[in-house]
Amino acid sequence: MSDTQIAVNEGSAEKNKKMLLKPTLKLVKYSKKYLPMMGIAVTMACIASFMMIWGATKVSDVVDLIRDSIVGEASLSEIKRITCKILIIYAVYLVLASAQGILLSSLKQKLICQLRNDIEKKRQVLSMAKLSSLDTGNILSIITNDVSKLSQSFSSIVVELIPAIVLLLGTFIMMLIKNVVLTLSVIASAVIGFIFLALVMSKSQKYFVKQQETLGKINDHVEESFSGMIVVKTFNGKQMDRERFDELNEEMRKVNFKTFCFNALMIPITTLVNNLGYISICVVGAMLIAKGKISYGLIASFMLYLSSFQDPISKIGSSTEQVQNVLATSDRIFEFLEIEEMPSEADKTTKLDNIEGNVEFKNVQFGYEPEKRMIIKDFSLDVKSGQKVAIVGQTGAGKTTLINLLLRFYEINSGSIMIDGIPVSEVSREELRNQFAIVPQDTLIFNGTIRENLVLSTQNVSDERLDEVCQAVGISHLISMMPDGYDSIINENSGLSQGQKQQISIARAMIADKKMLILDEATSSVDVILEQKIQQSMDELSVGRTSFIIAHRLSTIVNADVIIVMKDGNVVESGTHDELLRRGKVYAEMYYSQWKEQ
After folding, report:
1. Tens digits of residue pLDDT in 258-281
2. What is the pLDDT of residues 335-358, one digit of tens each?
3. Could you give the CA distance from residue 150 to residue 127 in angstroms, rounded to a whole number?
4. How many domains does the chain have?
5. What is residue 371's DSSP assignment?
């Protein structure tokens, strides 16, 4: 073998070692609060294992007494006494083993419950920038599939593997006490099995990791395909979509086949170890009996010892797949849990009580990848309380990005944004966002009742207020057609049109009744007649509130107090509708272009 090949093999071995060690240490560290409960369970397993071993030892006495009774040297009463003692020993073993199994199952459920809670908390504290860089399907796969698989695999480990290891060690110690030569013959066969198991695990772990990663890719593709189904069908992209799925599916098949092949080796290896053990006891035991060094009872005990010794080995072998599933899934889960969170804002106690609604952008600069390209460049804007500010510009000009910076979904690279003279960076995100109501461009209907979708987090909203708002935005007829009115269940797949979803979104913002309002293409999915009706409602809603309106349809912003025209992250024009038309520049060109189309 060449030096290069040796170096490659050593590097591969080191990599496999790290793949096994890293997730193991993380899982142990994460589970440290449950170690006392684990210790109690292990103690019970130790006592139960001692009972099993003690029972096997007493069997040796019974066999020797029966042999002696055949030649008239032992009484049946003594045999009955020891037999009853063996039954009591095994009864105690049964109670302890059952209690230990229940305790470990409880531990598993608590650990998995905590893990799900921590994953959900983690999702809530990740920044929009970080979330947008992650694959949605992969995150869903971690939250659902990986946690579920970890739960199933961890159950097998804590309920079977730990007691098996304890029993294995206890039996080994007892065999050494009874007879070293027979013990060594048994161990020789077991060592062969463990060597094979270690080789299989070192080679197969990477395929278990690959299995979970590929499943995440498939979930991501399926989620993307369902979300973009209309686009795929319209552009006849079914063949491309199908080819991509087939490619991922084939990759998954190959990985699954490799993991199955490695798992298929486990049972034959453990069976071979078992048979070699029985053969060694028979051969070596016969030789020792012939020399008068051991009794027939010890052979019987060693047969039971071997059963107690081999059963844990079989469980360890069959649990190899579960162990590797735990390591693979926990590695992905902890990788997600270790993603950098948004900085804690526990020290930010500044409140925005009774604000007037003055908003100032001062020399703001921002880029999603600032080292490559800046989206917002030295942007400044002074918005007075109660003003209706419209933000227009070509696609990619930075309109929505500006709103994301105002709400601190993204943090600015330099400059400042202030509300009533207070920098938003000094206010917690929750406190800041509590001052705004928003109608986003991409509407969302939650799975729940119409009332829950309208009210969301707003408290103490009466039916009269709901009626008033729904009448204003034009969805009263829709609600009257529902079987249970406001208590009817709806979701994204309830057959609501995009316009109806947007009306619900607008009603949600009106009910929130905040001091500041953000309308991001709020009427982009409704017809012209309904738009005019909603526009009247929004004009009423905007009275006394600082409003930011992002619009492509310029007819909806003609009555704005200030219209900001953005291009490449900068303000190129500002003024009222009439002022901008008189100037005849960018805004006028945009407006007349739409007017001609209409």
Report:
1. 877 777 776 677 677 777 777 777
2. 888 888 888 888 888 888 888 889
3. 27
4. 3
5. T
- Work out the average pLDDT over 328-340: 84
Q: What is the CATH number of the domain that holds 509?
A: 3.40.50.300
**Per-residue pLDDT band at 227 (split at 50, 70, 90):** low
Which structure tokens are listed for 506? Answer: 């607008």
**DSSP character at residue 161:** I
DSSP class per residue in 194-260: HHHHHHHHHHHHHHHHHHHHHHHHHHHHHHHHHHTHHHHHHTT-HHHHHHHHHHHHHHHHHHHHHHH
Q: State phi, psi for 578 to the nearest 5 degrees.
A: -65, -40
Mean pLDDT in residue range 47-75:
72
pTM above 0.90, yes or no: no
Could you give the angle at which helices 463-473 and 498-512 cross, rounded to 10 degrees?
130
Q: How far apart are CA 373 and CA 391, in angstroms?
A: 22
Domain hosting residue 483, numbered range: 443-513
pLDDT at residue 198 is higher than 90: no
**What pLDDT does 68 receive?**
65
**Which residues are CB-neighbours of 318 under 8 A, at least 6 positions away?**
266, 267, 270
Give CA–CA dist 160/157, Å, rounded.
Answer: 5
CA end-to-end span of the chain: 78
| DSSP 8-state secondary structure symbol assigned to residue 148 | H
Report strand pairing: 562-567 vs 546-550.
unpaired
Tokens 């103490």 belong to residue:
460
DSSP state of 388: E
By three-state DSSP, how is residue 471 classified?
helix
Residue with tokens 């009972």: 51
Question: What is the arithmetic mean of pLDDT over 18-23?
Answer: 62
Look at residue 173 and tell me if it is in a domain.
Answer: yes
Q: Are strands 562-567 and 388-393 parallel, antiparallel or unpaired?
A: parallel
Q: Are 506 and 473 in contact (CB under 8 A)?
A: yes
Q: What is the CATH number of the domain that holds 171?
A: 1.20.1560.10
CA-CA distance, 586 to 598, in Å (whole number)?
19
